[in-house]
Amino acid sequence: MRDLFAMQCPDCKRKNYMITRNKKLKKEKVSLSKYCPSCKKHTLHKEVKP
Question: What pLDDT does 37 receive?
Answer without folding.
Answer: 94
